[in-house]
C-alpha cells in the first residue's frame, strides 16, 4: 500500500487510473538520453506520474537555446544539463530518484555490447531524444534483443517524430526496429496498402497518406543531414540558414532519386497506370508539405515539445499498466486460492532465505536479529516477457498474492514471518518468483559460546557491521504431532558467522599489550627507583578497567568464559604479585636484617651474570632509602648489611623479570 504521503501526492493519478496501475508506475525505472527541451517535457510528465527512478545521460552544458523550456534558469548556463535538471526534478516530485550520468556519452556506453546490455537490463523503459539515426538504431537493437520498450523522439521546429518499439510481439503486432524501418525508406500504413491494392479510399484518407509520405521524406532528409554534418540543422546567421537550406534540398533530391530508382526496379513490367501513380507519389512528396519546409525546422518550440512530450509519456504509462490488468483482472487471480493450475497438485512452497544484514547479535540475551529477503514461487503469476514489452518484474502489494503459513519456530517475538510485511511491497518476476521487499526483520534465539571471543564463530538456527557469514546450510524435517497421524514440516536454516575483529584489536588487544610492556619495564628499572611502583599501579588499574568493560559488554552470565578474559585475570594476578614484591623489596633494602654468610657465598656466582660489576661501590643515601629512619652517620657494618640486601633484591628482581616474561607468553598460548 501507499504511505499517507504517497497517497496525498498521487491522489489525482490514483483517481485517474487506479491504485494498481499507480503501484506499477511506482516500480518503473526509466533511462533517458539527451536532456533538451523536448526531453524536459518527457521528464516532467513521467516524474509527476510517479515513476520510481529516472537515469539521465547527457554530457552537454546548458546553453541559451535551453532557456526556451522552464526547467533551466539563466544562472545554470554552462552547467551540465543532467546535473542542472536534478534539482528541478526533485522539486517536482521528491519521491522520484534521479540519477545523472554527466561524464559519459551514448557512443561510449554502446561501444561494448555486453556491458551495454548489462546496464540496460536494470531499466523498464529506454527513451532516446534528438539523436542521430545510427545511435538510435544501435540502442534500439540492444533494447529489441532484451525485450525492453524503446522510445525515440525528435523535434525540429514545427516538425517532430516519435518511434516506438515495445517488444518483439505485442497484441499480435510485429515491431520493426528503427534501423530496418529507415533502411527501407518507406512507410507501412494500412491505408497505403489498401491504395496499392486498388481499394477505394476517401479523399481525406488519400490526403493523410500523402502528408505522411511528405513528412517521412523530410525526416529522412534531416537524418541524412545529421549523418553527414554530425549535427542537426542549427542557424546562427542568415548566411548559415541559406547554406543549410541548400544542403537540405540537395540531400532531399538525392533521397528522391534513390526512391525513384528503387521504385523503377520494383515496378519493372507494371502497366503505365502504375508507373504514373508512382511518379505522382514521388512528385507529390516534394510539394505536399509547404515548399519552404526547410525554413521551419530550427530550434524547439515549447508548445511542440509539450504536445510531443505529453504524447510520449502517455504511451510509456499506458504500456506499463497493461501487464497488471492481465495478471490480476483478466485472469481472475484469487489470493485465497492455492497457487497451482491443477487442484490435485500439492502446493510447492519454495523458500529461499537471503541474509543480507546482521543487525545485532545480543550476547547477553542470546538473541540474533537479522534482516533478509524471502522468495516464493507462484505459478499462477507467470507471463511471457515478449508479450508485454519485455517487462521482467512488477511491484505488487503483499495483500494481492497468495501467502503460505510460514512461522519461525524459535522466533524471539513469536511473530509470523509474513505478517511482518503487511505494508511492504513485493517484486513479482515473470517466472512466478515473488521477492519480498524491503527486507524482513527476524529475531531468533541463538546459543552463543564466547570461549574464543573475539575470534569466535557462532552457529545460529535460523553485510553488516560486526559479523561475516562464512557458511550456511538448510535441513528439511517432518515432525509427528501424535494427533491422528498429523505431521508438520520444518525447514531449518543454519548460518555460521564469525566476528569482525578489527575494532577489538584497538580497544582490547593493543591496550593489553601496552600494559604488559609497562609491567616488564617496571621490573627492568632499578630496584630503588620509585617509578616502577607507579607503573605497576597504572597497569593494575588499566587491566581492571578492561576487564570491567568486557564483562559489561559480554555479560556475566554468558555461556563459556572468553580466553581473553581469563588472560586478563591472570595478568591482574601477576601485576598484584609485582606490586607486593615492589613494596617488600623497598622495605627489605631499608631493613637491618643481616643475610647469613653462607647465603651470600651461594649466590656469589649469580652476581657475575645478574648484577653490574660496580655493585660493591654502591653507597646508600637518604634518597635511596626514601625518608627512611637510616642514620646519616651509619657505621661501616650497617652499610655492608644494606648493600647485601640490595644485592639479594636485585638478583630476585632479575629472576622475576625473566619469569614474568615467560609467563606472559605461556599463558597467552
Q: What can you see in these coordinates?
A:
There is one protein chain. This protein is an alpha+beta fold. The protein folds into four domains: 212 residues, Rossmann fold (3-Layer(aba) Sandwich), CATH 3.40.50.720; 108 residues, no CATH class; 149 residues, Acetylcholine Binding Protein, Chain: A (Distorted Sandwich), CATH 2.70.170; 166 residues. The protein is built from 21 helices and 17 strands. Strand 9 and strand 10 form a beta hairpin. Helix 2 packs across helix 3 and helix 3 packs across helix 14. InterPro entries: Neur_chan_lig-bd (IPR006202), Neur_chan_lig-bd_sf (IPR036734), Neuro-gated_channel_TM_sf (IPR036719), ThiF/MoeB/HesA (IPR045886), Ubiquitin-activating_enz (IPR035985). One of its GO terms (cellular component) is membrane. This is Neuronal acetylcholine receptor subunit alpha-5-like.
Tags for this model:
4 domains; alpha+beta; Acetylcholine Binding Protein, Chain: A; Rossmann fold; single chain; 669 residues; elongated; Neuronal acetylcholine receptor subunit alpha-5-like
| Structural class designation | alpha+beta
What distance lies between the first and last C-alpha atoms, to the nearest angstrom? 58 Å
What is the radius of gyration computed over CA atoms, rounded to a whole number of angstroms? 42 Å
Can you tell me the CATH topology of the largest domain?
Rossmann fold
What topology, given as strand order, has the largest sheet? 3-2-1-4-5-6
Region (Disordered): 261-283
Keywords: Coiled coil, Membrane, Transmembrane, Transmembrane helix
Domain Neurotransmitter-gated ion-channel ligand-binding: 323-479
GO cellular component, one term: cytoplasm
Amino acid at each position: 500500500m501507499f504511505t499517507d504521503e504517497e497517497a496525498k501526492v498521487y491522489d489525482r493519478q490514483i483517481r485517474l487510473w487506479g491504485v494498481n496501475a499507480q503501484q506499477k508506475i511506482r516500480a518503473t525505472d526509466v533511462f533517458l538520453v539527451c536532456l533538451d527541451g523536448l526531453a524536459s517535457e518527457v521528464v516532467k510528465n513521467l516524474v509527476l506520474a510517479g515513476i520510481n527512478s529516472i537515469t539521465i545521460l547527457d554530457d552537454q552544458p546548458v546553453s541559451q537555446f535551453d532557456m526556451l523550456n522552464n526547467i533551466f534558469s539563466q544562472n545554470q548556463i554552462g552547467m551540465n544539463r543532467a546535473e542542472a535538471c536534478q534539482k528541478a526534478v526533485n522539486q517536482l516530485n521528491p519521491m522520484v530518484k534521479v540519477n545523472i550520468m554527466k561524464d559519459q556519452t551514448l557512443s561510449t556506453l554502446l561501444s561494448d555490447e555486453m556491458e551495454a546490455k548489462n546496464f540496460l537490463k536494470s531499466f523498464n523503459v529506454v527513451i532516446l531524444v534528438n539523436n542521430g539515426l545510427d545511435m538510435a538504431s544501435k540502442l534500439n537493437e540492444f533494447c529489441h534483443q532484451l525485450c525492453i520498450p524503446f522510445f525515440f523522439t525528435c523535434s525540429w521546429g514545427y516538425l517532430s517524430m516519435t518511434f516506438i518499439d515495445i517488444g518483439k510481439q505485442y497484441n499480435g503486432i510485429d515491431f520493426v526496429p528503427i534501423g530496418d524501418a529507415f533502411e527501407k525508406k518507406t512507410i507501412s500504413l494500412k491505408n497505403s496498402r489498401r491504395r496499392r491494392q486498388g481499394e477505394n479510399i476517401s479523399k481525406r484518407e488519400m490526403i493523410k497518406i500523402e502528408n505522411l509520405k511528405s513528412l517521412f521524406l523530410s525526416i529522412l532528409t534531416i537524418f541524412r543531414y545529421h549523418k553527414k554534418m554530425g549535427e542537426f540543422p542549427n542557424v546562427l546567421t542568415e548566411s548559415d540558414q541559406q547554406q543549410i537550406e541548400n544542403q537540405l534540398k540537395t540531400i532531399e533530391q538525392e533521397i528522391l532519386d534513390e526512391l525513384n530508382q528503387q521504385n523503377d526496379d520494383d515496378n519493372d513490367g507494371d502497366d503505365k497506370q502504375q508507373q504514373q501513380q508512382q511518379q505522382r507519389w514521388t512528385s507529390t512528396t516534394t510539394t505536399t508539405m509547404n515548399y519552404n519546409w526547410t525554413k521551419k525546422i530550427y530550434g524547439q518550440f515549447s508548445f511542440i515539445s509539450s504536445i510531443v512530450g505529453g504524447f510520449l509519456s502517455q504511451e510509456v504509462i499506458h504500456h506499463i499498466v497493461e501487464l497488471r490488468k492481465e495478471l490480476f483482472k483478466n485472469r481472475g487471480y484469487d489470493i485465497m486460492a492455492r497457487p497451482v493450475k491443477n487442484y490435485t497438485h500439492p502446493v510447492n512452497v519454495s523458500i529461499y532465505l537471503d541474509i543480507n544484514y546482521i543487525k545485532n547479535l545480543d550476547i547477553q540475551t542470546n538473541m540474533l536479529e537479522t534482516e533478509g529477503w524471502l522468495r516464493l514461487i507462484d505459478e499462477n503469476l507467470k507471463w511471457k516477457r515478449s508479450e508485454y514489452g519485455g517487462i521482467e518484474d512488477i511491484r505488487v502489494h503483499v495483500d494481492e498474492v497468495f501467502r503460505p503459513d510460514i512461522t519461525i519456530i524459535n522466533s524471539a517475538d513469536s511473530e509470523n514471518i509474513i505478517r511482518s510485511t503487511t505494508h511492504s511491497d513485493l517484486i513479482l518476476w515473470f517466472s512466478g518468483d515473488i521477492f519480498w521487499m524491503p527486507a524482513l526483520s527476524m529475531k531468533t534465539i541463538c546459543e552463543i559460546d564466547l570461549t574464543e571471543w573475539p575470534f569466535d564463530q557462532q552457529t545460529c538456527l535460523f553485510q553488516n557491521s560486526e559479523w561475516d557469514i562464512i557458511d550456511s546450510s538448510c535441513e528439511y524435517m517432518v515432525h509427528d504431532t501424535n494427533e491422528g497421524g498429523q505431521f508438520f514440516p520444518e525447514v531449518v536454516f543454519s548460518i555460521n558467522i564469525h566476528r569482525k575483529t578489527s575494532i577489538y584489536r584497538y580497544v582490547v588487544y593493543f591496550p593489553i599489550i601496552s600494559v604488559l610492556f609497562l609491567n616488564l619495564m617496571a621490573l627492568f628499572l632499578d630496584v630503588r627507583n620509585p617509578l616502577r611502583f607507579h607503573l605497576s599501579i597504572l597497569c593494575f588499574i588499566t587491566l581492571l578497567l578492561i576487564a570491567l568493560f568486557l564483562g559489561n559488554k559480554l555479560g556475566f552470565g554468558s555461556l563459556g568464559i572468553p580466553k581473553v578474559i581469563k588472560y586478563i585475570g591472570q595478568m591482574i594476578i601477576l601485576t598484584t604479585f609485582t606490586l607486593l614484591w615492589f613494596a617488600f623489596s623497598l622495605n627489605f633494602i631499608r631493613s637491618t636484617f643481616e643475610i647469613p654468610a653462607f647465603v651470600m657465598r651461594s649466590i656469589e656466582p649469580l652476581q657475575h651474570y645478574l648484577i653490574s660489576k660496580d655493585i660493591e661501590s654502591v653507597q646508600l643515601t637518604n634518597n635511596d632509602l626514601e625518608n627512611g629512619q637510616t642514620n646519616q652517620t651509619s657505621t661501616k657494618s650497617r652499610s655492608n648489611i644494606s648493600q647485601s640486601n640490595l644485592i639479594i633484591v636485585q638478583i630476585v628482581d632479575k629472576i622475576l623479570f625473566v619469569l614474568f616474561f615467560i609467563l606472559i607468553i605461556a599463558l597467552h598460548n
